[in-house]
């Protein structure tokens, strides 16, 4: 069985100089797509990845990352819609490149599908009432 | 069949008035016909909830001890500058005002995170804001500086006074250029990546009374979650634009100036808004009740999105250069479908005005009237109509010779 999951990796400062991603690909046979990266020497590094491969390899890869000291979060938890601020205008639906923000045609309410979100953050500033929040 | 506002109010008082929203009335007219529906329905409620920049509020702050004359001085609420050119402690806060130290578009597009609209929202939510005043000092108003927390309930008057709201129709914005544009119509992606519009369409107040036959000066309305009134026609009110055979304007036409006590409004209906690369504004909720005085008036309220047309305008060239060019006309029915075709290209559409919130406003107003809490008013004077022959003047610049 193959899986494709989006994860957020937090690298403690001591690991920023290590070739962690190289090992992840080479030793665990995973395909990865980097969605966002922020790596600064001596500070915590952040990487948003889509990882795909066999379930067995994925599980081993995640174990390798955890044992190496990388903190892993699933992506869906990081982009949040502040429901109290969203006015359901729909300005975001043409900005979101993945369809994670889409209009429900009958009610015309804007639905947010965190599983489709790649955390590109384009919606954050394009949202007029600023309802979209990113918490990495 | 004719009714008077007095007769409708009598029914409202007795809890017998039949009230439906401008969305519901469409199906009723289709099923029962105009004649029967006009007899049965007494009031049609409308609603709109969108960014409306020509909004603001005036405040009377109360006198400090010793006194200070803010008139002619400078004043800020949460660092947002307010207009002080009145008497000692009256100020006006505009929705688009931004702090002096906001970076604006120095790094384009500026985020415009906080401005006058946000201050209004926070005040209505009951929050404390920082008031800072500097003045020149006089014999009767000796104080020159003042800094204090203040909230809405501390003020003598706090009045929302929006000089142009509820635009009757508006452009659909696209971008023909090859770079992203940051406009008051939202982010416009290059090469017609999207088409943005802003209206509640069939629920919008002035689309349901296209010739201003019931809405006039003094009309009582839902404003910002509370009660307000139509104060005047709004700025740029232009009834003379081309209209469809049902009387619906095919471009931006009538507007309303509205007023109401800010202290009884709600933050959910006055939302501070940031337009990336453009500026700050206020999203305002407005609902207007339309008394069904005749079959003609009912017919207007049965207008559908498919009957309402707007003009598609290029915001890379035509709009900023004041060119009258339009790409095509499009119905709101098509726009709400999510995709339209312009010059053979399929373009996704987005709205800046919230349709679900407009529905909520129309339903709230309906409830108020059904409960007998909200009576209709007779306008004290009409808004200028087509017969006024208003022409929408551009600014003709005349060079000043030194």
Structural topology:
The complex is a heterodimer of chains A (136) and B (402).
Chain A: E1 2-11, H1 20-28, E2 31-38, E3 45-54, H2 55-68, E4 71-74, E5 79-81, E6 101-103, E7 110-112, H3 122-126, E8 132-134
Antiparallel strand pairs in A: 1-3, 1-4, 2-3, 5-8, 6-7
Helix pairs in contact in A: 1-2
Chain B: H1 5-13, E1 19-21, H2 24-40, E2 43-45, E3 48-51, E4 56-60, E5 74-77, E6 80-82, E7 90-94, H3 116-124, E8 129-134, E9 145-150, E10 157-165, E11 172-174, E12 181-183, E13 186-188, E14 195-197, E15 216-217, E16 220-223, E17 226-233, E18 256-261, E19 270-275, E20 279-287, E21 289-291, H4 295-301, E22 309-314, E23 328-331, H5 332-336, E24 339-342, E25 345-351, H6 355-370, E26 381-382
Parallel strand pairs in B: 1-2, 11-22, 14-25
Antiparallel strand pairs in B: 2-21, 3-20, 4-7, 4-10, 5-6, 5-8, 8-9, 10-18, 12-13, 15-26, 16-17, 16-20, 17-18, 19-20, 22-23, 24-25
Helix pairs in contact in B: 2-4
Short account of what is shown:
The complex is a heterodimer of chains A (136) and B (402). Chain A has 136 residues and is an alpha+beta fold.
């Amino acid at each position: 069985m193959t899986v494709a999951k989006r994860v957020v990796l937090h690298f403690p400062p001591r690991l920023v100089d290590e070739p962690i991603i190289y090992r992840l690909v080479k030793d665990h046979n995973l395909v990865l797509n980097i969605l966002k990266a922020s790596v600064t020497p001596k500070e915590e590094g952040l990487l948003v990845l889509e990882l795909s491969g066999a379930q067995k390899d994925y599980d081993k890869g995640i174990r390798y990352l955890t044992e190496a000291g990388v903190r892993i979060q699933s992506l869906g938890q990081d982009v949040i819609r502040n429901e109290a601020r969203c006015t359901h205008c729909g300005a975001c639906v043409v900005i979101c490149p993945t369809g994670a923000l889409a209009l429900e045609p009958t009610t015309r309410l804007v639905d947010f599908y965190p599983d489709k979100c790649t955390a590109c953050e384009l919606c954050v500033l394009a949202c007029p009432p600023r309802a979209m929040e990113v918490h990495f | 069949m004719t009714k008077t506002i007095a007769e409708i109010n009598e029914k409202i008082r007795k809890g017998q008035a039949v009230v439906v929203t401008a969305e519901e009335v469409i199906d009723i007219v289709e099923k029962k016909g105009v004649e029967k529906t006009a007899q049965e329905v007494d009031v049609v409620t409308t609603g709109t909830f969108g960014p409306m920049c020509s909004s603001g509020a005036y405040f009377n702050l109360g006198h400090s001890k010793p006194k200070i004359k803010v008139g002619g001085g400078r004043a800020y609420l949460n660092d947002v500058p307010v207009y002080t050119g009145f008497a000692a402690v009256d100020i006006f806060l505009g929705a688009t005002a931004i702090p002096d130290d906001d970076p604006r578009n120095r790094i384009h597009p500026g985020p415009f995170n906080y401005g006058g609209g946000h201050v209004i929202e926070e005040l209505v939510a009951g929050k404390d804001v920082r008031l800072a005043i500097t003045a020149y000092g006089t014999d009767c108003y000796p104080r020159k500086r003042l800094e204090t927390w203040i909230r809405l309930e501390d003020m003598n008057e706090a009045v929302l006074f929006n000089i142009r709201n509820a635009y009757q129709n508006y452009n659909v914005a696209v971008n023909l250029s090859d770079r992203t544009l940051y406009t008051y119509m939202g982010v416009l992606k290059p090469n017609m990546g999207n088409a943005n519009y802003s209206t509640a369409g069939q629920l919008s107040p002035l689309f349901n009374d296209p010739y201003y036959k019931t809405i006039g000066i003094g009309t009582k309305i839902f404003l910002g979650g509370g009660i307000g009134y139509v104060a005047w026609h709004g700025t740029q009110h232009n009834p003379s634009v081309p209209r469809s055979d049902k009387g619906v304007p095919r471009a931006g036409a009538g507007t309303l100036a509205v007023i109401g006590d800010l202290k009884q409004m709600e933050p959910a209906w006055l939302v501070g808004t940031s337009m990336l690369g453009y500026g700050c504004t206020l999203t305002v909720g407005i609902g207007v009740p339309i008394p069904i005085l005749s079959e003609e008036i009912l017919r207007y309220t049965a207008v559908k999105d498919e009957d309402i047309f707007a003009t598609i305008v290029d915001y890379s060239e035509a709009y900023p250069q004041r060119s009258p060019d339009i790409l095509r006309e499009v119905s709101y029915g098509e726009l709400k479908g999510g995709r339209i075709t312009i010059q053979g290209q399929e373009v996704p559409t987005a709205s800046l005005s919230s349709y679900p919130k407009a529905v909520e406003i129309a339903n709230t107003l309906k409830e108020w009237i059904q409960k007998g809490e909200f009576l209709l008013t007779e306008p004290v004077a009409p808004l200028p109509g087509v017969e006024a022959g208003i022409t929408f003047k551009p600014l003709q610049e005349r060079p000043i010779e030194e």
